[in-house]
Amino acid sequence: MLKILSWAFGIILLLGILPGEAWVVQITYFLICGWFHYLATVLPQVHVNLGMIFSGVAAFGLAVITTHLVLKWLWRQRNKNHIWHWRSTLCLCLLVPLLFGLSIAVGGIVHQGAWLMHESNWVVDKSRGRVTKSIINAKQTIIYLRLWASDHEGRYPERLAQLFADELADNNQVLNYVPLDGGTPELLIYLPGLKDSDPADLPIVIGPHSETGNRWVMGLNDGSVSMVSGEDFAKAMSKWKQHTAAPKDKSR
Q1: C-beta of residue 243 within 8 angstroms of C-beta of residue 226
Q2: What is the domain count for the chain?
Q3: Number of C-alpha atoms within 13 angstroms, CB side, residue 207?
Q4: Which of 79, 96, 117 is the last residue of a domain?
Q5: C-beta separation of 138 from 217 below 8 A
């Protein structure tokens, strides 16, 4: 048995390191450890209601007592020489919720199995939706910046915090970059020192780190946001550094 498990683990590991086959390791990992991630996410959101717990325990206790009395009476009608025990009642009462949970699980398996039979793509790259969310947040951030600039002679704020001070933005989530591992969102990096009249191709908002393939989320002064290559990212950052380092014309 141990030898079979070792071979299976080796095959999964080999497939996982092949290009484009990382999903094999991911599916295996989440099948084995997915419940731990689920509990880590759900348990902190659980709120204990003592009143409901007390009501549930009382209702279950009343059901057990009633069931025991009924079964004890029925048992005496057929077996007057034998006694119906509390242990038998408890086993039956615990078996009911167990069967209920089992039926829910089987129903879920059947439902998911039927869905997979009609689904053409079993593996979905969730990072695409995450990157899209980050791009939307970056674009919304640029909109807030341009609104702020319209009230301050075309100049952008020195810090993003000024958007909240002026009550332009009331949701800090729009300034966030969604990480790949689904952890705590990170703030987008704001590049200060620009005006809304500066060149449109200057970067103003970027992601805190690169994506797979050395691609970056970058928002430009014209309001556009896209994924750019590492080479284009370096060129844009060089332009921004040269522009902000150059002496400013005070008449502007």
Answers
A1: no
A2: 2
A3: 29
A4: 117
A5: yes
Q: What is the pLDDT of residue 234?
A: 93
159 plus 241 within the same structural domain: yes
Residue 44 has pLDDT above 50, yes or no: yes
**134 found inside a domain:** yes
One domain for residues 131 and 227: yes
- Alpha-carbon distances, residue 247 vs 67, 197, 241, 244, 251 (angstroms): 88, 16, 12, 8, 12
Q: Are 194 and 156 in contact (CB under 8 A)?
A: yes
User: Given the structure tokens 């075309």, which residue do they identify?
Assistant: 154
Residue 154 included in any domain = yes
Residues in CB range of 202: below 8 A, 6 or more apart: 194, 220, 221, 236, 239, 240, 243
Q: Which two tokens stand for residue 132?
A: 């899209």
Instruction: Give the domain range for residue 84.
Output: 57-117
pLDDT band at 218 (very low <50, low <70, confident <90, very high): very high
- Residue keyed to tokens 């989530």: 173
Q: Which tokens hold the place of 167?
A: 């009550």
The whole-model pTM stands at: 0.48
Taking the alpha carbons of 147, 133, 224, 197 in that order, is the dihedral positive or negative?
positive
Residue that finishes a domain, picked among 117, 134, 161 = 117
